Amino acid sequence: MSSNPPVWFITAASSGFGKYIALEALSRGHKVIASARSASRIADLKGKGADVVTLDVTSPLAEIEKVAKEANDKYGYINHLVNAAGYILVGAVEETSPKEDFDTFATNVFGMLNVCKAFLPYLRATPGHRTIANFGSIGSWQGGAGYALYNGTKWACSGISEGMRAELAPLGIAVTVIEPGYFRTGFLNAGARVVSQRRLREYDETAVGKVRATLEAVDNNQPGDVVKGCKVLVDVLTMTGVAEGKEVPIRVALGSDSPPVIREKMRATEELLKEWEGITTRTDHE
């Protein structure tokens, strides 16, 4: 099997990181099984040599398991699983509806979980190097007005990925969470960015209103180059190129703006602990 090319299964491959990870892997002679809610949206990847399948990550687990079996049957093994499906829900917590809240968790968190559940039997059966890459965000680290639901889903992805890493390391599967900053993808485009149907004018002059305006201004002006980012990611996941000689890390802080956000969170958290630990730790039994 060592002489056979790696096989990738990628969700949400119609755009953004999913698409460009697929293209980068194909450029290296790897096999790619790309998925999207509509196969027509990934016809270009088929033209580049990918196998394409239809998959809505919010489908029942039994349906995702059928897709996983068919994908594994194609080549007899799967090395890399990439969970790239996700979107941002913009709106204050008071504005977003229970259905909007549920739907964003259904895609960003439960979809990721069910895809992992469906593919893990095949990853476990595959010898050699194997990875699961889940997408978090710099939003995994720092909450913000106007996108708290997105923060919640990405914190969940980060925490679940850390737990999965501990579970699967003994089985030889490396799990990582990718936490990108702002990359110039279609993520913030009007067709991809979901805005709460309810909008309260009381929030217009607050940080929520500023975030709405900022996201529109940032759209298509993000600093990160998704092609360069995906080249790094494929290197990291295959432990080649710039990642040769390194193990797959527990998280990938991708983009020039990602490490500063994490460092600021670390600094603020350390200050918080120093200020309060003399009070909050006096809670043990005598």
TrEMBL record:
Coiled coil: none annotated. InterPro entries: DHB_DH, NAD(P)-bd_dom_sf, SDR_fam, SDR_oxidoreductase. Pfam families: adh_short (PF00106). GO terms for molecular function: 2,3-dihydro-2,3-dihydroxybenzoate dehydrogenase activity. It comes from the Eukaryota. Keywords: Oxidoreductase. PANTHER family: SHORT CHAIN DEHYDROGENASE, SHORT-CHAIN DEHYDROGENASE_REDUCTASE FAMILY PROTEIN. This is NAD(P)-binding protein. It comes from Trematosphaeria pertusa.
